[in-house]
Predict the structure.
Amino acid sequence: MIGFYSSFLYLISAVLFVLSLNGLSHPESSRRGNLFGMVGMGIAVFTTLAIVSPNPITYLVIFLGIAIGGIIGAYIARSIDMTALPQLVAAFHSLVGLAATLVATAAFYNPSAYGIGEIGNISGGSLFEMGLGLAIGAVTFTGSIVAFGKLQGLVSGQPVTFPLQHPFNAFLGILLLVLIIALVTTNSTTAFWGIFIVSLTIGVLIIIPIGGADMPVVVSMLNSYSGWAACGIGFTLGNPLLIITGSLVGASGAILSYIMCKGMNRSFFNVILGGFGGESDIDPTQKDSSDKMVKRGSADDAGFIMDNASTVIIVPGYGMAVAQAQHALREMSDILKSRGITVKYAIHPVAGRMPGHMNVLLAEANVPYDEVFELEEINRDFSQADVAFVIGANDVTNPAAKTDPQSPIYGMPILDVENAGTVLFIKRSMASGYAGVDNELFFRDNTMMLFGDAKKVCEEVIQALD
Amino acid sequence: MGSNSQNLSTSLAEQANSIGSRLNELASKLESSKLEELASEASTLGAKIGSITQFSHGSVDPLIFGITVLVLSCFIGYFVVWSVTPALHSPLMGVTNAISSVIIVGALIAAGPKDPNFFASIMGFFAIVLASINIFGGFIVTQRMLSMFKRKKPSGENK
């Protein structure tokens, strides 16, 4: 099927894909890495064009398709707001999933084009690979759409659960297995479309019970799925390039999911089974926190405290992204820096709605990347810092994760902001975080609460500093 | 990849098949059941040679070959991805998103096969559109992200 030269060119493009990921080990080499990826993709596409039948109409159709997709993709990528990045990535995953199902369908209805047999007489092995590619593609497609809906706020971020959910999912899983066996043994068209429909349903059902705070895991998981879908199609077509690329992407998504789970001290299955991150079992209002006093501060107080500090560590969270406060925050830290105060940023692995989201938002606001630190790099510095400026983060700073074995977030690695001289907490209200637990930090003597919209508070602090 | 032996066995299969069909003609003319048997034997031989052709390259089963590639690639992916700095995890998702759209290769073959099937070609066309959105979108959004990551400027340069 694939000739000598095209195999060789596919290998080059696979190597370029590996190099493109390798480039991301450092911001300096990352841009070149992205370029490698583009060149690799270009080689893959042109090599394939040389294989397809040299027919002017075919070429016209293909270039029309690429042009339509390219224009849409470029437009979206250029106009998207960086805060909406997680939604965009989820939407893109769904497209990969759908494209995989379309290719599987095309292979089923025109197997001779791929050299895997005739209609109704495809070898069992090819059918198995095709069924797998179809199933993973369909799960990725609907799963990503639900994730997109949740991130975009179209669907409630609350975990959706219903009675007998797990038995029903298990039933669908078994049904899927039966249908794949039926497809392999009978070449049946009904089984093919059955797999499609059951997989679409499974995709919806595995994502709806997962709550908003677990979205970093979900987005990484779907990233992984989209890779495995490509891998499945690669097996169907007997194309090593697709298998290699699919495995790279699959491994990448799996590792990111693992890192996110570790950042929350939760097992992968615990996240998948869902029900966490919305209305938790513990009702925060039942906890008798009303008699405890919080110290409220004004922007002037905050400005005064920071003006007299020598080191300030800023802890951004999803709240900063929602309020679009990153630019005001950077302006504030510029003023502090111009007065000789050291400013650093501390980022928790699960801050934001996708891995590395906070880093991108800070980079967008022109914060140099060498001022931004990961949890392990900076956690010891809090004890030497005069001020911890927590903006839009909550659970990732909660000491209960270290002290209270009853707490749902117990064992989660946290940023030790309580060790700083003063903790400034910017929050809209006293509401608890996603985990639904109170943060005892609010009631400490060295904590000052600044209530209000993150962006507005930053702007007020800037005025106070002037 | 063993294309010589593949060509050889393909021509052998064709030859056996043509012998089979000629014997069949002869059998129907002479109305001989013996010749008919011989004819069917020749065509099964053709079919057998044809099936060997599929596996003739390097005598490795394509499935085993695919799994070998898969396992080794997973190891490469594992080591490469762990070396990605956490700060660049979002761009990593952007890039992986773009390169997973390499399934456009399958879509191109579906849209432009040697012997076309209308339904499959339509599927292929839509798959090309979707994969292209992803390829362009993924690479461009990653480029945008990466261009934002800047080192600290020497003091006094930024206003």
